Amino acid sequence: MNKKLHLSFIIFLTAIFISRTAQAGDIKGKVQLAGSKSNANVLVYIEYVDGSFAPPEKHVVMDQKNLMFHPKILPILLGTTVDFLNSDNVFHNVFTPTECAGSFNLGTWPTGEIRSHTFNDANCFVTILCDVHPDMQAWIAVLQNPFFVQTNKSGEFEIKNVPQGKYILKVWYPFYKTVSTEIEIKSTGSIRKYFTLKK
Protein backbone atom coordinates (compact mmCIF):
# COMPACT_ATOMS: atom_id res chain seq x y z
CA MET A 1 0.00 0.00 0.00
CA ASN A 2 1.52 3.36 -1.04
CA LYS A 3 1.67 6.33 1.33
CA LYS A 4 -1.23 8.24 -0.27
CA LEU A 5 -3.53 5.22 -0.19
CA HIS A 6 -2.48 4.42 3.38
CA LEU A 7 -3.21 8.01 4.45
CA SER A 8 -6.60 7.95 2.72
CA PHE A 9 -7.49 4.71 4.51
CA ILE A 10 -6.58 6.20 7.89
CA ILE A 11 -8.67 9.31 7.16
CA PHE A 12 -11.59 7.06 6.15
CA LEU A 13 -11.44 5.04 9.40
CA THR A 14 -11.11 8.21 11.46
CA ALA A 15 -14.19 9.68 9.78
CA ILE A 16 -16.20 6.56 10.60
CA PHE A 17 -15.06 6.67 14.24
CA ILE A 18 -15.90 10.37 14.59
CA SER A 19 -19.29 9.85 12.94
CA ARG A 20 -20.22 7.03 15.29
CA THR A 21 -18.91 8.85 18.36
CA ALA A 22 -20.86 11.97 17.36
CA GLN A 23 -24.07 9.93 17.40
CA ALA A 24 -23.68 8.63 20.94
CA GLY A 25 -24.52 10.15 24.29
CA ASP A 26 -24.43 9.41 27.99
CA ILE A 27 -27.16 8.72 30.55
CA LYS A 28 -26.49 10.06 34.03
CA GLY A 29 -28.63 10.18 37.13
CA LYS A 30 -29.38 9.00 40.61
CA VAL A 31 -31.55 6.34 42.26
CA GLN A 32 -33.09 6.45 45.72
CA LEU A 33 -34.16 3.21 47.39
CA ALA A 34 -37.09 4.16 49.61
CA GLY A 35 -36.53 3.07 53.19
CA SER A 36 -32.93 1.96 52.60
CA LYS A 37 -29.77 3.45 54.13
CA SER A 38 -27.74 2.56 51.04
CA ASN A 39 -28.53 3.19 47.39
CA ALA A 40 -25.68 1.01 46.07
CA ASN A 41 -25.82 -1.75 43.45
CA VAL A 42 -29.15 -0.79 41.91
CA LEU A 43 -29.21 -1.99 38.30
CA VAL A 44 -29.90 0.60 35.60
CA TYR A 45 -30.11 -0.76 32.05
CA ILE A 46 -31.47 -0.27 28.55
CA GLU A 47 -33.98 -2.99 27.77
CA TYR A 48 -33.16 -3.43 24.08
CA VAL A 49 -30.62 -2.04 21.61
CA ASP A 50 -30.52 -3.03 17.92
CA GLY A 51 -27.70 -5.39 17.04
CA SER A 52 -25.92 -8.35 18.55
CA PHE A 53 -23.23 -8.13 21.21
CA ALA A 54 -20.54 -10.71 21.81
CA PRO A 55 -20.26 -11.93 25.41
CA PRO A 56 -16.88 -11.75 27.13
CA GLU A 57 -14.52 -14.65 26.47
CA LYS A 58 -13.39 -14.57 30.09
CA HIS A 59 -15.82 -16.14 32.53
CA VAL A 60 -17.44 -14.01 35.22
CA VAL A 61 -17.12 -15.24 38.81
CA MET A 62 -19.74 -15.45 41.53
CA ASP A 63 -18.02 -16.52 44.75
CA GLN A 64 -19.42 -18.26 47.82
CA LYS A 65 -17.61 -16.91 50.85
CA ASN A 66 -18.58 -16.44 54.51
CA LEU A 67 -21.88 -18.17 53.69
CA MET A 68 -22.79 -15.43 51.21
CA PHE A 69 -22.79 -15.01 47.44
CA HIS A 70 -20.38 -12.38 46.11
CA PRO A 71 -21.53 -10.27 44.39
CA LYS A 72 -25.11 -10.35 45.57
CA ILE A 73 -26.33 -8.85 42.31
CA LEU A 74 -24.48 -9.73 39.11
CA PRO A 75 -25.53 -8.16 35.79
CA ILE A 76 -24.15 -9.96 32.73
CA LEU A 77 -24.43 -9.82 28.97
CA LEU A 78 -26.44 -12.50 27.18
CA GLY A 79 -24.28 -15.55 26.48
CA THR A 80 -21.91 -14.99 29.40
CA THR A 81 -20.59 -17.97 31.34
CA VAL A 82 -20.52 -17.62 35.13
CA ASP A 83 -18.10 -19.62 37.27
CA PHE A 84 -19.52 -20.42 40.71
CA LEU A 85 -16.56 -20.71 43.10
CA ASN A 86 -16.69 -22.18 46.59
CA SER A 87 -14.25 -20.28 48.83
CA ASP A 88 -15.71 -21.53 52.12
CA ASN A 89 -14.49 -24.46 54.19
CA VAL A 90 -17.88 -26.14 53.83
CA PHE A 91 -19.78 -27.71 50.98
CA HIS A 92 -21.95 -25.42 48.86
CA ASN A 93 -24.62 -25.95 46.24
CA VAL A 94 -25.90 -23.69 43.45
CA PHE A 95 -29.38 -23.98 41.97
CA THR A 96 -32.18 -21.81 40.63
CA PRO A 97 -35.93 -22.26 40.24
CA THR A 98 -35.98 -19.52 37.54
CA GLU A 99 -37.42 -21.07 34.37
CA CYS A 100 -35.79 -18.71 31.85
CA ALA A 101 -32.40 -19.85 33.16
CA GLY A 102 -33.30 -23.51 32.77
CA SER A 103 -34.11 -24.18 36.45
CA PHE A 104 -30.65 -25.71 36.79
CA ASN A 105 -28.98 -27.43 39.73
CA LEU A 106 -25.18 -27.60 39.54
CA GLY A 107 -24.88 -29.96 42.48
CA THR A 108 -22.80 -29.65 45.65
CA TRP A 109 -19.03 -29.22 45.78
CA PRO A 110 -16.18 -28.60 48.27
CA THR A 111 -13.74 -25.75 48.90
CA GLY A 112 -11.84 -24.42 45.90
CA GLU A 113 -13.93 -26.09 43.22
CA ILE A 114 -15.90 -24.36 40.46
CA ARG A 115 -19.08 -25.23 38.58
CA SER A 116 -20.11 -23.17 35.55
CA HIS A 117 -23.27 -22.22 33.69
CA THR A 118 -23.87 -20.19 30.51
CA PHE A 119 -26.90 -17.88 30.47
CA ASN A 120 -28.59 -17.71 27.05
CA ASP A 121 -31.96 -16.00 27.65
CA ALA A 122 -32.06 -12.20 27.60
CA ASN A 123 -33.92 -10.12 30.18
CA CYS A 124 -33.88 -13.08 32.54
CA PHE A 125 -33.55 -12.24 36.24
CA VAL A 126 -32.23 -15.36 37.91
CA THR A 127 -32.56 -16.14 41.60
CA ILE A 128 -29.47 -18.03 42.78
CA LEU A 129 -29.77 -20.24 45.88
CA CYS A 130 -27.77 -22.76 47.89
CA ASP A 131 -29.56 -25.98 48.84
CA VAL A 132 -27.15 -26.51 51.75
CA HIS A 133 -27.63 -23.01 53.23
CA PRO A 134 -31.21 -21.74 52.68
CA ASP A 135 -30.36 -18.20 53.83
CA MET A 136 -27.95 -17.67 50.93
CA GLN A 137 -29.45 -15.78 48.00
CA ALA A 138 -28.20 -13.79 45.01
CA TRP A 139 -29.43 -12.58 41.62
CA ILE A 140 -28.02 -12.68 38.11
CA ALA A 141 -29.51 -10.28 35.55
CA VAL A 142 -29.02 -11.51 31.99
CA LEU A 143 -29.21 -8.50 29.66
CA GLN A 144 -29.50 -8.19 25.87
CA ASN A 145 -26.92 -5.43 25.48
CA PRO A 146 -23.90 -4.00 27.33
CA PHE A 147 -25.53 -0.67 28.19
CA PHE A 148 -26.04 -1.28 31.89
CA VAL A 149 -24.47 -0.16 35.15
CA GLN A 150 -24.93 -0.41 38.91
CA THR A 151 -25.23 2.58 41.19
CA ASN A 152 -22.58 3.66 43.68
CA LYS A 153 -23.25 4.12 47.41
CA SER A 154 -24.88 7.47 46.76
CA GLY A 155 -27.16 6.02 44.10
CA GLU A 156 -25.39 7.76 41.22
CA PHE A 157 -24.96 6.07 37.83
CA GLU A 158 -23.63 6.76 34.34
CA ILE A 159 -24.07 4.74 31.14
CA LYS A 160 -21.62 5.97 28.50
CA ASN A 161 -21.64 6.05 24.69
CA VAL A 162 -25.23 4.98 24.11
CA PRO A 163 -26.02 5.02 20.35
CA GLN A 164 -28.44 7.65 19.11
CA GLY A 165 -32.05 6.48 19.29
CA LYS A 166 -35.12 5.91 21.45
CA TYR A 167 -35.00 3.34 24.25
CA ILE A 168 -36.68 1.98 27.35
CA LEU A 169 -34.52 2.61 30.42
CA LYS A 170 -35.22 0.36 33.41
CA VAL A 171 -34.21 0.44 37.06
CA TRP A 172 -34.24 -2.81 39.05
CA TYR A 173 -33.43 -3.98 42.57
CA PRO A 174 -34.57 -7.12 44.43
CA PHE A 175 -37.91 -6.79 46.26
CA TYR A 176 -38.51 -3.30 44.82
CA LYS A 177 -40.88 -2.36 42.00
CA THR A 178 -39.08 -1.99 38.69
CA VAL A 179 -39.30 1.47 37.13
CA SER A 180 -39.31 2.07 33.35
CA THR A 181 -39.10 5.26 31.34
CA GLU A 182 -38.71 6.21 27.68
CA ILE A 183 -35.54 8.08 26.76
CA GLU A 184 -34.08 9.53 23.58
CA ILE A 185 -30.40 9.94 22.82
CA LYS A 186 -30.24 12.62 20.13
CA SER A 187 -26.53 13.41 19.84
CA THR A 188 -23.43 13.97 21.92
CA GLY A 189 -23.81 15.15 25.49
CA SER A 190 -25.83 13.59 28.26
CA ILE A 191 -29.33 13.28 29.62
CA ARG A 192 -30.13 13.06 33.33
CA LYS A 193 -32.70 10.89 35.05
CA TYR A 194 -33.71 10.56 38.71
CA PHE A 195 -35.64 7.65 40.19
CA THR A 196 -37.17 6.53 43.48
CA LEU A 197 -37.82 2.80 43.88
CA LYS A 198 -40.45 1.58 46.32
CA LYS A 199 -41.06 -1.87 47.73
Question: Would you give an account of this structure?
Answer:
With 199 residues, the chain is mainly beta. It has 2 domains: 101 residues, Carboxypeptidase-like, regulatory domain (Immunoglobulin-like, Sandwich); 93 residues, Sandwich (Immunoglobulin-like), CATH 2.60.40. It is built from 1 helix and 16 strands. Strands 12-2-14-15 form a 4-stranded antiparallel beta sheet, with no helix packed on it.
Question: What is the fold named in CATH at topology level of the largest domain?
Answer: Immunoglobulin-like
Full CATH superfamily name of the largest domain: Carboxypeptidase-like, regulatory domain
Sequence of secondary-structure elements: HEEEEEEEEEEEEEEEE
Estimate the mean pLDDT confidence: 91
Helix content class? 10-25%
Largest sheet at a glance? 4 strands, antiparallel
Structural class: mainly beta
Number of helices: 1
Low-confidence runs: 5-21
What is the number of E strands? 16
What is the gyration radius calculated from CA atoms?
20 Å
Name the beta content range: over 45%
Number of structurally distinct domains? 2
Strand order, sheet with most strands:
12-2-14-15
